[in-house]
Amino acid sequence: MKKLCSIFMVAVMSLTTAIVPVFNASAASISSSSYSEALKDSIWFYDANKCGKDVAADNVFSWRGACHTTDGSNVGVDLTGGFHDCGDHIKFGITNGYAASILGWSLYEFKGAFDASGNTNKMLSTLKYFTDYFMRCRVSATKYYYHVGDPSDHEYWGPPEQQTGSRSLTRYMGSGQGAADVCGLYSGALSLMYLNYKSIDSTYADKCLTYAKELYALGKNNPGLCSADAFYTSSDWKDDMAWAAMWLYAIEKDNSYLNDVNTWVPIPATNWTICWNDMKLAVAAVGAEVTGESKYKDALSSSLSFWKNSVTTSGGGLKILDSWGTLRYTSAECLLSMVYYKLYKDDSAKTFAKSQMDYILGNNPANMSYIIGFGSNYPKHPHHRAASGYVGWNDWKNPAKNVLTGALVGGPDSGDSYTDLTDKYTCSEVGIDYNAGLVGALAGMVQYFGDIPQNTNTPVTPSPTPTSTNPSFTYGDLDNNDKVNSIDFALLRQVLLGIPTTNVNMSAADLNDDGQVNSIDFGIFRGYLLGKFSPLPYKV
After folding, report:
1. What pLDDT digit, counting tens, does each position of 473-505 carry?
2. How far apart are CA 232 and CA 501, in angstroms?
3. Residue 319, helix vs strand vs coil
4. pTM, whole model, 2 decimals?
5. Domain over 458-523 is classified CATH 3.30.1330.10
6. 31-449 has which CATH code?
7. Which has more pLDDT, 172 or 466?
8. Which residues are catalytic?
């Protein structure tokens, strides 16, 4: 009883403390609150790259507004929406699909981190902006558009709101137009939206799943690579379709999807990491989780070993895989490392990710954060037209008028040197694909270096089929997904803090079955996750 009371006191104290402390600015001082703050910023970045009629809605940047509002009019289809690629304004299917996939996966894997840091709603809003666009691009089950924008876009320097000129170049996936790489990425992103959104709006989620399956069939029937005018040269489509297949298997448990995965990516190994052109290790990570096959774990383990032992390391400790946008690859590998840690509790994976993420946040020889707006010392000349705020080429190299909060720049070289110039785009450009891995990695850091209780026990066995003597719910399963974990704990905390929360099973939250939901239930839940109380309900 004394132990129980002390846990209740901790619970009450935690309820009166701010969930997300403010970052305190020494660049080299990286705390758990730093990860939460950086996670928020990294999601915000996507608002800067929104395109379409509704850009200003739910946008943190006052300097962004409606743009390219007639996209698709030349082909009689509404192709507005989606996201600009990098510092330019073309909408590429390959990077929109990749970013939406990785962001959706990050929320799925580390939802407790998003909940606890207060970033879930913004993340879902961003993901819905992606999936709304994908579904808007549907003409029929056998035709989806995926590309809007001409190469001449790069001849313009200025905000997208003021851009005129051709947006007539569009491309679609369909008969005779193989783009199975984009089909796979779009399908995977929509499947993940189904999983992330089904407890919020089941009708919208079901629509996402329907379209995910359509795109999967479209890719199977039209193998081939997308066209992106040499900006992005995809080398294969099989890894992207395997990504789609793995998520459809996770949802439906239909072995035909696994058969496709084994045909397309029989051994998902690569000496690289996940990126818009290589999804094999993402396939391996999901495969490890949903099938338990050793080949998937082996692929992830091999990748981590490669990064730890073979990738070039700067004097300051940064892993340099490629000189163009190096931090996108480092962040992506950190995401993989945190998923690996989640699955196998390998502390070396967590330590590796922390070393790299702390470098990015400012623990480096330059004492510079490579996330714009984070800390007190960060890049001021990102290669980004909207943030620049200048029209024309006379002033384009000046410091940006607008702070591009949350954007991950390409990063320093192997000598830990960063050139903060707009025209040095190999290091100063930003992109929706760059930030995708960053968001996931930061969520992993919040999950495992923040104060979020972890359920280290074996998975909870589902409750028996309800009878007259058994309740029709599982105690502790607040989101009704047949699991009791830190996500449910975060929901209970939101309820007790008075934060608006939907679709919460309050009967399942009454963990001592006394007819009330209060701090006592909170203390019991914390103790349950720490292995102190079992089973539920726990009656004092």
Report:
1. 788 988 888 788 888 888 888 788 777 677 788
2. 41
3. strand
4. 0.80
5. no
6. 1.50.10.10
7. 172
8. 88, 383, 420, 429
